[in-house]
Amino acid sequence: MAKHYALVPAAGSGSRFGGPLPKQYCLIGGRPLLYHTLAALCACPDIERVWVVLSPEDDFWPNQEWQSLGPKLSPLFCGGPSRAASVGNGLEAVADCLAEEDWVLVHDAARPCLNGDALGRLIGELAQDPVGGLLAVPVADTLKRADGEQRVADTLPRDGLWQAQTPQMFRYGLLRRALAAHPGVTDEAGAVEALGLHPRLVRGELSNLKVTYGADLTLARAILEGRQA
After folding, report:
1. Which residues fall within 8 angstroms of residue 166, CB to CB, at 6 or more apart?
2. Residue 229: predicted pLDDT
3. Residue 145 phi/psi, 5° resolution?
4. What does the buried/exposed string (b/e) look like for 47-73 if buried means 16 or more CB atoms within 10 Å of the residue's CB?
5. H-type helices in 50-195, by residue range?
6. Residue 131 and residue 201 in contact, taking contact as beta carbons nearer than 8 Å
7. Do residues 200 and 133 make contact, with C-beta atoms less than 8 angstroms apart?
8. Average pLDDT, stretch 191-204?
9. Is 60 exceeded by the pLDDT of residue 30?
10. What is the pLDDT at residue 16?
11. Strands ordered across the beta sheet of 47-53
12. Distant-in-sequence, close-in-space partners of 15: CB < 8 Å, separation ≥ 6
């Protein structure tokens, strides 16, 4: 029986976010953003272990309280210069713990609002899938392509377009091979697609937003506080 594991690349500096701290350590409700991200994964009964991939120079992790997340969680100080490098390094670091057919759920450190329903839906719908897949939402807004002067060059049809989210869930062996062959991708699904495979899209939720800019942090706070009300 294949098992499920989670890997969270969190070695980035959050340069687009700005501020004195990497965005994963900005506080939401008195806890680092990263705490909420990891809590959703640690609470899932289907996930055996949760690894967070940190920069070897990360000085913030030891100053926070993580014990309340339970024994599933382990840090890996092997982050690389890119997301793909961090995920690849993490997968190599835990090679002795996983079988080729085990599932790995890679989740953005900056998505603290993942809920159990979406996570359970991903795991359930992909249980027998030959490729794997990811959470995503259909694009609702009209899309414009800009020219070199930031004027509208054309309007893109949105039919069939989805916005990728995480977790992205693939078999351990397949994911390692895909990232080794295509290290320049921006997400795991892209690496698998580059092998000629077609990951499944599992409907996610708009609340599973990625914190990229300061205003996103305000929205994430509101979502999490609303769940606690």
Report:
1. 106, 107, 108, 111, 134, 135, 187
2. 67
3. -100, 130
4. bebbbbbbbeebeebeeeebeebeebb
5. 83-93, 116-125, 172-181, 188-194
6. no
7. yes
8. 98
9. yes
10. 54
11. 73-76, 47-53, 4-9, 103-106, 162-171, 132-138, 200-203
12. none
User: What's the pTM value of the predicted model, to 2 decimals?
Assistant: 0.94
Token code pair at residue 96 = 């002795």
Q: In whole angstroms, how far apart are CA 19 and each of 22, 30, 70, 214?
A: 7, 17, 30, 9
- The letter for the amino acid at 128 is Q
116 contacts 142 by C-beta, under 8 angstroms:
no
From residue 144, give the alpha-carbon distance in Å to each of 134, 140, 151, 152.
Answer: 25, 13, 9, 6
Query: Which are the contacts of 95, defined by CB distance < 8 A and separation ≥ 6?
Result: none
Mode of pairing for the β-strands spanning 162-171 and 103-106: antiparallel
Helix axes 83-93, 172-181, angle to 10 degrees: 140
* 21, pLDDT greater than 90: no
Contact 204, 169 (CB under 8 A): no
Residue 225 Cα distances to 36, 51, 167, 221, 222, angstroms? 12, 26, 22, 6, 5
Yes or no: say if 69 and 42 are a contact pair by the CB < 8 Å rule.
yes
Other CB atoms closer than 10 Å to residue 128's CB: what's the count? 6
pLDDT in tens, 40-98: 999 999 999 999 999 999 999 999 999 999 999 999 999 999 999 999 999 999 999 99
pLDDT of residue 228: 81
Diameter of the chain by CA atoms?
A: 55
